[in-house]
Amino acid sequence: MVAAHWPGVDPEWSRTVSVRSTTAVDAPGTVRRWHLLDNEAQLSRRGLVPVGTLLCVHGNPTWSYLWRTLLAAGSDPAHPWRVIAVDQLDMGYSARTNTFRRLPDRVNDLGDLTAALGVDGPVVTVGHDWGGVISLGWALAHPELVTGVVLTNTAVHQPATSPLPAALRLALHPAVHQWGTTTSDAFLRVTHSLAHPPLPADVRKAYMAPYRGRHRRAGVGNFVEDIPRAPSHPSFPALQDIAEGLRTLDVPALMLWGPRDPIFSDRYLKDLINRLPHADVHRFEGAGHLVAEDRDIAGPIFQWLAANEAVAGSPGAAGYAGAEDAGPEEAGAEDAGLAGATNPEGFRPLWDLLDKQALSPGGGETAVVEMAADGSTARSLSREQLRRNVLDLAAGLAGAGVGPGSRVSLMVPPGVDLTVALYACLRLGAVVIVADAGLGTKGLSRAVKGATPDFLIGIDKALAAASALGWPGERISVKDLPSARRRLLGVRTSLTSLGRPSAGRDGQTPPAVVDPTAPAAVLFTSGSTGPAKGVVYTHQQLAATRDTLAATFGIRAGARLVAGFAPFALLGPALGAVSVTPAMDVTSPRTLTARALADAIAAVNATVVFASPAALRNVLATQDGLREADRKGLAGVDLLLSAGAPIPEPLLAEVQRLLPAASLRTPYGMTEALPVADITLEQIQAAASDASAGTVVGAGNGVCVGWPVHGARVAIVPLANDGSAPASTPVTDAGVTGEILVSAAHVKDSYDRLWLTQQGSTDVPGWHRTGDVGHFDGAGRLWVEGRLAHVVTAPDAVVTPVGSEQCIERLDGIKAAAIGGVGPAGTQVVVAVVETEPASRTAGPATPQLAQRVRAAAREAGVAVSAVLMVPTLPTDIRHNAKIDRSRLSRWATRVLAGGRPGKP
Question: What pTM value is reported for the model?
Fold first, then answer.
C-alpha cells in the first residue's frame, strides 16, 4: 500500500486505525484495522481549523480513492473541512474479516470507526452506491452530529413492482455471481467501464489495486449478495428502516446524479426526492454511475456547503421532524401545497377568466377551435363546454390518482385535447411536464426520463415511443384504444373515459386550493445550446405571464387569436381569447402554410396571430396558393406576434405586405421568461436608421429587440476580457456589452433538478441571467448580440457573433451566416460559415472570391475573419428551425481547418 502511487492522493492523507468492534458478527473484543484517507493532520499542520467533517462512504467495488477530489478541496484554506473517506471492512485497504457483513453490520462498523476517531459535529455524510445507504443509516443513528447529507447515485428502496436493474440481476445469478464478483475481477472491470469519459489508465489501475487476487475480493461478492432484493432477505428490514427514516430527516440535503447509470436510474432519484423533498438536486447530463469521476463534484459540494449555513451550525439544530409534530412546513410532499396555500392579493389562477366567461351570459360563445387539414373546423368547444370538460376530466384524473404535486407529462398536440388536459391538471394542483417532439427523439427521451412523470398522457405515437424507450409514468391515452392495443402499450385508461361524467359526479368538482407558490409546470427549453433544461413555473408565475402578455400587447377578453406557436395555444383560454389551432405540426413550425393560416383566421374571424419566424417564412413561400377571400381575411388581422428566434427586418416587411393592417411585433424572450422585451416593425426600421446614421450611441451591432415589456426590468453584466460575465453590479449604460439580465414577476422559479444551473442563473441577486449577450443604445433599446457561450475570445478582442453575421447576410448569394471561434480561449481565430443561395453541394473552404467578400463584409462590424467555410445547410435547432448551433459549427470548423474530412457539420 503506497499512497504515492495513487494519482490525485496526497500520501499524508493515508492512515490506518485499529478499532474495537461492537458488531454482532465479530467476537467480543475483536479489533479491526481500517484504512482511510483523512486530511486532519494536514489541516492541523497548516494551522487550519475545520468548519466541520465530511464523512465519505464508498460503495461496491470502489474504495476511499473515489473521494480524493473532496480531500483536496477540503484542504483549501478558503474552505477547510476535515474529510474522512473510509475503506469499509473487507474493501479497499481495510482488513479482510472473513465474515459476511450485512447492511446493519456495516452501519454499526461505521459507528465504531467514528467513535474511535472521536468524530464530533457538525458532520455532513457523503455516500455513493451502497455507501449511500450505509452513510444514511449512520446519519439516522447519529442525529446529534449530523447537519447535512450528500448523495450520489444510490438507492434506498426497490419497488416490488419493478425488477432489479439487469446488471445486478446478472451479478446475482447463481451461475455468474461467484465467478463474476470474486473468482475473477469482472465485476470491477465492468463497473470501471461505466465512466464517461473512460477512466485514465493510471486511475483505473488505482481502483483495481486493493482487489488484486481472489482472496481480496470476498467483500465485493458479499456486498452484491447483500442486496435486499425481497422482503425475505436478511437485510431488508434494515433497508426499510433507513428508507422510512429519511422522511424524518430534516437537515440540508444535496443529490448529485449521473443519469447514464444502468444501475441507479432516475427512478431511484425520484424515490429519494419523495423522501427528501427539500433536497437540492443536480443531474449531470452525460454522466453515469461513477459521477464523481465523470464530473467535478467537489466544486458543487463545497459551493453547497457555503450556501447552507445550517451545515456548519450546531449539530442537530435542524434535527428530525416526527410526523406527529410536523407543521405546515414539515408536511408530506403530497400535502405541502395545500398546507401552505395562500391567496395573495391580486392573484388569479390561470383559469380564472375562463370560469368567469363560462358562467356569464356569453358562456355559449366559442372558446377553442381545432382545424382539420382540409381547412374545415375539426372540433370546437364553447366557453361553458370547455369549463365543464375541464372539471369532468379533473374529477376523472383525481379518481385515477392524480393530485397535488403529481407530475403529468402531456404528450398531446396543441388543440382541444391538450387544452382540456392542461387546465384539468392545473386545477388539481398537478405539475404538468411539457416537452415536445421538437426536441428530437434523443432529446425528448432525455427530458421525459429526467422529469420522471408519475403519469404520461399521450397520443398513440407518443405512447408507442414511451413503450419502446422506457419512459416512466402510468400511461393514459387520449382516445379509447382497442383492448389489444391498450395492453401492448401498457395503457391503463383514456382521457375519453376519464372525462365522461358518471353517476354521482355532477362535473362541478370544486377546484383544488392551489398554493400560488407551488410548482405548476415544467417547460423544457429548445435544447439549441445544449441539453434541454426543465424550467419550473409556479401558479403565480404562470398567472404573471398571462398578465404580462395582456398588458404588453393589449390582448383583452374576447380577442380572437390564431395560435401557430405552441405556448400561446395554451394561454388563449387564460387570456379569455377565442383560440384556434391551425392545421400544422406545431413542433415543426415550417409546416404552417399560408392557406392553413388563412383557414384558421377565417374560422374565428381572427384579429391576432402568433407564429414563429420559421412558420412565417413558409407562409410567405406558399402564399401563391391564397384565394381572394383568404387575402381579405389576412387583411383583417390587427396584431402579429412572432417569437422563438430573431426575425430579419426584410422578412417582416414581406409579412407586412401580406398582413397590411397588422401591427407587427417581435417580442424577445425565452422559456425562462416569455416575454422580456418588445418592438414593432416601425421601431426596428427606426433603430436601423439610427445605426446607419450613427446618431444614437450604441445603435447597431446586433438585433434590436426594443424595450422591456410591462412589469419587467432589464440590465447588463459587462463582459470581461476572457469573454465571461462575472457577477457584478448590473448596468444600463449605453454601449456596454455584457450578459443580459431580467427581473420580472413572470420569470421562472427554478431549473428542474439542475441546482448548479439555477445557482449560476441567479448569482446576481434579484436577477435572472439569460445567457444572451447584448447592450443598450442611447434610446434605451436593447440589442442582442448572440449567446454568451458563442462569444469568440480573440487575442485582442472579444467578438460577439450577430453583428458580423448580419453584415455577411446582406451579401448577394448568402442565405445565412454563422460566426464561430477556433483555437484555445483567448487566442481564438474567427471563422465564418455561410450557407449560399443556391446551396453549395459540398461542405468545405469557400472560394477565394466568396471568402474575400465575406471578410470585407465582416470588417464593417469590426470583425477580422481568418477563414471562411461554406455548407449546404447551416444546422439549426429542431423546435424553432431557426436557431443556429454555433458551438457545433465551431467544432466542425476546427476539424476542417486541421485537415480533417469536412463531412456534415
Answer: 0.91
